[in-house]
UniProtKB/TrEMBL annotation, chain B:
The keyword Iron-sulfur applies. This is Ferredoxin-like protein. To ferredoxins from P.putida and C.tartarivorum, ferredoxin I from A.vinelandii, ferredoxin II from D.desulfuricans. Residues 28-60, 63-92 form the 4Fe-4S ferredoxin-type domain. PROSITE patterns: 4FE4S_FER_1, 4FE4S_FER_2. Pfam families: Fer4_ETF_QO. The keyword Zinc-finger does not apply.
Length: 454, 103
């Protein structure tokens, strides 16, 4: 974080390295989850790794909901030392109508309270990413911050290094790992992938509210390190758009946000107005009442699924994490952290093996896409690819008609009057069937959405 | 968006941006490729997708947006959002720009 501009040829915190060219086996672009996982994996395999981050420290440019899923991170570092906020003890899925109705399903399996807590923890990225990168440094990785990669270097078709915005900022190495996240300017500039369409990218805005710990424990019914992850759908969450809202508990703060297609924002539903409406919904407002806003943030989420995945390997380079579109947003699941780490891990292993063989061409690196293909990452992405197509067809039903019909049906079902329970049940059923287009419509929809829970 | 709960949070864009820490590079990392296209453009989608009110089109600007780059949260929405691919979008130089404290 120095004020002077050290050149990459003579870094101020390194000694006796006259030139970085070919001093490293691999250069990683981006110290987010995927980049740091790749760097750490390679360092553990004995490679010399240079990790470049554009922010003043890892995490300063990164935003997520969110829940960090740790099954793979656990293999790389001792996460008991990590700056985790709370483990997820409760998940709630909630339908909000624009009229103020809420219909929710909540779960608190007792198993989640036991170690390893289903590998799901809330974190704040500034703290977590910085800590994670520190673990990589301790494993031997060289981290350089405040350095933006602007392009790759090529020798013919082969990628042989990167260009940065530092004076004399060209660095060469046998492999470049592109871990730049959702705005993957380098991969796009280098022609490794096209910029995703705005239908396939979500805009998200988030606010962190400061509340005291007891208030959070009381409002969310939590004890100790237990935490809650609430996901919201329907017109009351994101208006006319395709997407959702979220509320996550940290130790002494609560994260609140919405994420929906940039396409919908472009049509006129602005991010701030959407956040305002969500935060003022009667189901959400009381959760953060009296909280002080301590940070507003925004970030993009690639959600094109397996269909939108670019090629993952090139001669001398691999693409990992969000840059490769590895995010699962199925409605029920919003997962990118586990996929980012898993892809960085497989890429790191494949690169180490290739370098051991003295080769870094596309064929030599092919173990990475192959292993990823065999992992949960690609399998899950393919499994849920249908979701986006289905949701586009059924948007009006899912997000507007259904939440209203559910609220009406509940009102009927539990109505306190002098008619029989059976009459209430019939009336409730009718409300639901009206919305779903009768038995046939309901059956068709149930069939279309059956895979959401499978 | 709704009439049932008109209790909109009492917070402005300025209030929100005030919570964000920045390091100003002194020069814009955002731009417009071709101003004529903005003049032709009637939808100004850059202004709708931006969560930080960076893009605004004034009455007397020929339809060309002004860009308050210092407020940019670097989310990339304008990059994806402009239907004419007319947004020039780079990262702020050497570590400047937004510095999230929470994320
Ligand atoms: C609002 C929101 C909520 C989310 N919620 C969840 C959730 O609850 N659970 C979950 O699992 N996932 C969630 N995700 C997805 C998850 O955050 C991402 O999938 C994950 O962060 C991707 O990691 P990454 O390393 O690929 O990219 P990033 O974490 O974005 O890291 C990229 C890094 O590269 C750096 N960089 C970029 N370009 C350059 C360059 N040219 N030169 C140098 N450095 C560069 C950036 O500064 C950054 O540090 C959410 C995402 C968002 C936006
Ligand atoms: S940047 Fe794009 S969306 Fe904005 S005014 Fe210009 S052409 Fe229109
Ligand atoms: S990157 Fe995001 S915050 Fe910055 S100008 Fe574009 S839309 Fe606005």
């Amino acid at each position: 974080m120095s004020e002077s501009e050290p050149t990459l040829q003579k870094p101020n915190h390194q000694t006796e390295t006259p030139n970085y060219d070919d001093a490293y086996d691999a250069i990683v672009v981006g110290a987010g989850l995927s980049g740091t996982a790749a760097a750490l994996t390679m360092a553990r395999e004995g490679l010399d790794v240079l990790l470049l981050e554009r922010g003043p420290a890892p995490g300063t440019k990164n935003v997520f909901g969110g829940v960090l899923y740790t099954p793979t991170i656990r293999e790389l570092v001792d996460i008991d030392d990590a700056p985790l906020e709370r483990y997820i003890a409760e998940k709630k899925f909630s339908m909000l109508s624009a009229d103020g109705d809420e219909t929710a399903v909540s779960m608190r399996p007792s198993a989640w309270s036991d170690d390893p807590h289903n590998d799901s923890y809330t974190v704040l990225r500034r703290r977590f990413d910085e800590w994670f990168a520190k673990q990589a440094e301790e494993a031997g990785v060289t981290l350089i911050t405040e350095t933006t990669v602007t392009d790759v270097l090529r020798d013919g078709d082969t990628i042989v290094g990167v260009r940065t915005d530092r004076p004399d900022g060209e660095i060469r190495a046998p492999v470049v790992v592109l871990a730049e996240g959702a705005n993957s300017l380098v991969s796009e500039t280098a022609g490794l992938k096209d910029r995703p369409d705005r239908e396939d990218v979500a805009v998200s805005v988030k606010e962190v509210f400061k509340l005291n710990r007891e208030t959070i424990d009381d409002r969310f019914h939590l004890d100790g390190d237990a935490g809650a992850a609430y996901h919201y759908f329907g017109e009351g969450a994101v208006g006319e758009a395709v997407g959702g809202g979220f509320v996550y508990t940290n130790k002494r703060t609560v994260s609140v946000g919405v994420a929906y297609r940039i396409e919908d924002a472009a049509q006129g539903q602005t991010p701030e107005a959407t956040l305002d409406a969500f935060e003022s919904h009667p189901a959400v407002a009381p959760l953060v009442r009296g909280g002080r806003r301590i940070e507003y943030s925004a970030h993009a989420i690639p959600e094109g699924g397996a269909d939108a995945m670019p090629d993952l390997v090139y001669d001398g380079a691999v693409v990992v994490g969000d840059a490769a579109g590895l995010v699962l947003n199925s409605g029920v699941h919003l997962e990118g952290t586990n996929m980012a780490v898993e892809s960085g891990y497989h890429a790191g292993k494949a690169i180490a093996a290739a370098i051991e063989d003295g080769r870094t061409d596309e064929a030599a690196l092919a173990a990475y896409p192959r292993d990823l293909e065999d992992s949960f990452v690609v399998e899950n992405l393919r499994h849920y690819d249908w979701f986006h197509r289905t949701i586009a067809t059924d948007r009006q039903f899912l997000f507007e008609d259904l939440p209203r019909a559910l609220a009406d049906a509940e009102t009927e079902y539990f109505k306190m009057d002098r008619s029989s329970k059976e009459a209430h049940t019939d009336a409730a059923r009718e409300r639901l069937l009206d919305a779903t287009g009768g038995w046939v419509g309901a059956a068709k929809r149930a069939w279309r959405f059956r895979r959401m829970l499978s | 968006m709704s009439t049932a709960h008109p209790h909109v949070p009492d917070v402005s864009t300025e209030d929100r941006l005030y919570t964000v820490k920045y390091r100003d590079s002194g020069e814009s990392h955002l731009g417009i490729e071709n101003a004529d296209i903005c003049t032709e453009c009637t939808t100004n989608e850059c202004t709708s997708v931006c969560p930080a009110a960076v893009w605004t089109v004034d009455d007397d600007s020929d339809g060309v947006p002004s860009i308050a780059y210092e407020n940019c949260l670097e989310c990339g929405s304008c990059r994806f959002g402009c239907p004419y691919d007319n947004v020039e979008w780079t990262y702020p130089k050497t570590g400047s720009g937004v510095v999230f404290k929470q994320g």
